[in-house]
Every structure is written in C-alpha cells, then in structure tokens.
Design goal:
It contains ten helices and 14 strands. It has 292 residues and is α+β, with helices and mostly antiparallel strands. The protein has an eight-stranded mixed sheet with strand order 1-2-3-4-7-5-6-8. Strands 12-11-10-9-13-14 form a six-stranded antiparallel sheet. A hairpin with an 8-residue loop joins strand 2 and strand 3. The protein is elongated, with a radius of gyration of 22 Å.
C-alpha cells in the first residue's frame, strides 16, 4: 500500500519487511529496518550503500547514531554483522541508489563522511563513530552533484521521528543562558542582540552592489552543514533560491531551513578575495562609511 506524503512510503504487507521510502525527483531509495527484522531483508539490498544505526530517543529528544558504508554487494551483510557487533541500535536507515547503476565506492565514501559531519553538528545527535570516516577519492567536481542526495535522507530521518534540532522556541528561549549550541547563523535573541549590536545596520544588498563589493549573478552558498544550499544574486539586489527571489538574506535563509536565521551570517559569496560572509562585507562597508 502507498501512503501519499512528500515522500513515497511503501508499507510492507508483512510486519517482517522494511518500510521503504523514496523521495520525489530523487533516485535515493531508503529502507527503515527494525532490528528484529534486520535478518529478513530482501536480497535487493545486496548492494553498495550507506546506513545509519539509530538509538532510541531519550526524554530530551536526543538520540545516538552510527554512520557506516557498505562495499558493492554488502549492504545487507553489513547490517547483519552489526546485529552481532553492536547492541545499542533499535532501528536502521539504509540508503541506496534506485537505478541500474548503483553507488560506486567513492560516492558512498563521500556520503558517509558528509552525513557524519551533519550529524556531528546536530544538537540532538550523539555520534557513536570513534573517528570521522575519511574518503578523499571523489573528485571535487563530482561532489556538488552529490549534495542533492542529502535532503531526502535528512527528510526521512525527520519523517521517522529522528530530528536533528529541537523546535525553534526551545532553541531560542530568551531566558536560556546556554547559547553555545546555537549555530553561528541562528537569529540573535534579544539578550544576545543587546550585548553585540548597538543599532540595526542600514547597509543593504543594494548598497554592497552599488559599491562593487558584490556583483549581479554572483553565487551565494550556505555555510550550514545541516542545510546545504546555493542561490544567486539578481540584478535588482535580491537573492534567488529555487526560482523565487527574496529581498532580504534572512528571508532566503528561512526558505532553506524552514525557521528564522540571520541571513547575513548564513550566506557567503565568492569575491576576488575568496569566499566571504555577507555580514563581513556589510561590516567592511560600514567601516568605510564611518571613516569618510
């Protein structure tokens, strides 16, 4: 039976089978496998892939995870090995490519490392890997095409209740004195703004363009590992992301993350001096204006 959601979820006729998830417009195929059913995976999972071993959520919504990869033809076998070698997990998320050409070894190596980085940054995740997986065999030109595999995987984790970050209200409570866990692009709370910013900056994207500090058509890249994204600066000083132009960096950042962010520290842009945060360019222009 098919459940109509942003992801196509195939529920097995038997409770012994995996719950398969496939995102629209993606060749990523995933399976949610309960530990008790791991030994009964169909042989279609004898392939190359990546897997996440998931722990139960605690009272605070935090959970442990182990990230691994499987060589050609061994994904199902790797999961079977972890039934004996690791007793912490209750559920696994398996990831393969749903085409005639499966992942090759450098792709799963890159994907394993990138997922490790994302989970290592996530507030609700405790990684069980001893060290970061290392694989440098994928050419840098091929890595950009692999970024599209990440959103379906992260969305599937959310779909099965394994969130990476707490709700915005919890993470940004004005009474909280613990701000070290906030990502650098998080929207400032009133408490933090009082300490850091004396007045609201009047510098806009149009001002930066007028001074030649950024150029129309320049590519903007998210600095967030949790929310990788690319956008473009339009000729009228707006940020175009997925076909929609936003007048403010924070609005474009919200379109990526789904929650409020400080867009000036969320986006960086390529300049003759290398990649620079929009906030750094804004501060530079403010200094110029103050000294003139």
């Amino acid at each position: 039976m098919e459940v109509q959601t942003p992801y196509r979820v195939t529920i097995p006729h038997s409770l012994n089978g995996p719950l398969e998830i496939c995102a629209d417009n993606s060749v990523v195929r995933m399976a949610v496998v309960e530990r008790a059913c791991a030994a009964r995976l169909p042989d279609i999972w004898d392939t190359t892939g990546v897997y996440l071993l998931l722990d139960h959520l605690d009272a605070a919504g935090k959970w442990g995870a182990y990230v691994g990869k499987a060589a050609p033809g061994t994904l199902r076998k790797r999961l079977g090995n972890h039934l004996r070698a690791r007793d912490h997990w209750y559920r696994a998320l398996l990831i393969r490519r749903d085409t005639e050409s499966p992942f090759h070894t450098s792709q799963v190596g890159w994907l394993e490392g990138r997922l490790y980085d994302i989970l290592a940054e996530a507030e609700l995740v405790r990684l069980r890997n001893g060290n970061r997986p290392q694989d440098h065999t994928m050419h840098v030109d091929d890595q950009a095409s692999m970024l599209g595999y990440l959103p379906p995987i992260l969305g599937a984790l959310h779909l099965i209740g394994h969130n990476l970050t707490p709700p915005v209200a919890t993470r940004r409570s004005p009474r909280s004195r613990t701000t070290g866990s906030l990502p650098p692009y998080a929207l400032d709370t009133p408490e933090r703004t009082t300490r850091r910013t004396k007045k609201h900056s009047e510098v806009s994207l149009a001002d930066l363009m007028e001074q030649g500090m950024i150029q129309p058509g320049a590519e903007l890249v998210s600095v967030s590992r949790l929310h990788p994204a690319k956008a473009k600066l339009t000729a009228d000083a707006r940020i175009e992301y997925e076909g929609i132009a936003y007048s403010k960096p924070s609005s474009a950042g919200h379109a990526v993350t789904g929650y409020s962010v400080n867009g000036w520290t969320f986006w960086e842009v390529e300049t003759p001096r290398g990649p620079r945060l929009l906030s750094a360019l804004r501060q530079e222009l403010e200094r110029r204006q103050a000294s003139s």
